[in-house]
Amino acid sequence: MKDTQFIIFHLDDGKELRGGQRQTLHLAQELNDLGHKNILVCRKNSPIEKTALKKNIEIINLPYIFEWDILSALILKKKIKNILSKNKAESVILHSHTSHTAALSYLISLFLKVIRIVHRRVDFKVNNGLSARLKYAKANKIIALSKAIKKILIEANINEDKISIIASASNIHDMPWDENNFNDYKKKSKKEISENFNIPKDSFLIGSLIALVPHKDPENFLKSAKIVLEKFPGTHFILAGKGELLDKLNTLARELNIQKNFHIIGYQNNSDQILAALDLFVLSSRKEGLGSVLLEAMNAKLPIVATNAGGITDIIENNKNGLIAEKENSKELAKYQIKLIEDKKLRKELAEEAYKRRINFSTEKMAEATLKIYDETIKNT
């Protein structure tokens, strides 16, 4: 078989296809293109597996029964040894893309000589206990999505020298539009989305694509919408996503009496079309590793209002390529939405700058930076 410089096992136990899973797939695909062997280690029949198969990414399935799952570790050890018997590689890299798979990679390292790379994508506090020390402090290298996440890891007594920052990325070449047909695609998308969800076609449309979970704070978005509607009652809102807060949000929309203008539409496969249909994108998080959905919004040439949670400000510079509101402050979030409804020129300027800056977050740059970390880690191990 063809010699390969690296064999990379990407460990992701996600049960849904969220931003983190999309980033894992972006990385595996780019590294494949650079000539390295990439294998996704995931749950059978999971959304990430189904998407990876469409992209011709090699798969290994594990049960991922619980965090410190020795059965999954033994299964993977056997599969790795079998792959190594058929492939020559400079090094075997276990790249954990979730907290639980970082535990699995540690267990594997007890049996095999591997390089452990651990990705930290969320800005939740890391408990400074034995589990965290084994998962993070014992890793060869940690990749944090943002400065905020790096700070949290350092506060958990993780050696700063082990931590590098690589932001999320967007595949800027894999969009259903190009420079020449974007306006036509946007017009068509707005027409179809308006018809599908019974939205007046000429209304100003504000939206967000997020998981309906507490740290994304979708209640903040609804409360801000109530304020916006008091001044601009013809505005409509779309919230796409699924999660544990769905019923609570539907109830809140009725309590705020905004259910006719606030459309909670569940998870949608046509995220590009929804983004293209919007006039303004909002991210209302109270915690956020980085906010990779913002990169998709930038690709769609949208003006953005986001909070200052976590690593969002690594992407959005206030008054440059978006507006930043204080997190958990629905009044301020609404104020900036109103500002952009009223100021078409500012909307255009922010959207154009965001579109320019998307180049800084390309999947190619992410892969190159990650490959450099692999190289440096192997040399220093």
Give the arrangement of secondary structure elements.
Elements: E1 4-11, H1 19-33, E2 37-42, H2 47-54, E3 58-61, H3 70-84, E4 89-96, H4 99-109, E5 115-120, H5 130-137, E6 141-144, H6 147-155, E7 163-165, H7 182-196, E8 205-209, H8 218-231, E9 236-240, H9 246-255, E10 262-266, H10 271-277, E11 280-283, H11 293-299, E12 304-307, H12 312-315, E13 323-325, H13 330-342, H14 344-357, H15 363-380
Parallel strand pairs: 1-2, 1-4, 2-3, 4-5, 5-6, 6-7, 8-9, 8-11, 9-10, 11-12, 12-13
Task: Please indicate the percent range of residues in DSSP E strands (runs of 2 or more).
Answer: 15-25%
Mind telling me the C-alpha Rg?
22 Å
How many individual helices? 15
Give the total of domains: 2
Give the total of beta strands. Answer: 13
Order of helices and strands: EHEHEHEHEHEHEHEHEHEHEHEHEHHH
Strand order across the biggest sheet?
A: 3-2-1-4-5-6-7
CATH class of the largest domain: Alpha Beta
CATH-scheme architecture of the largest domain: 3-Layer(aba) Sandwich
Unreliable sequence segments? none
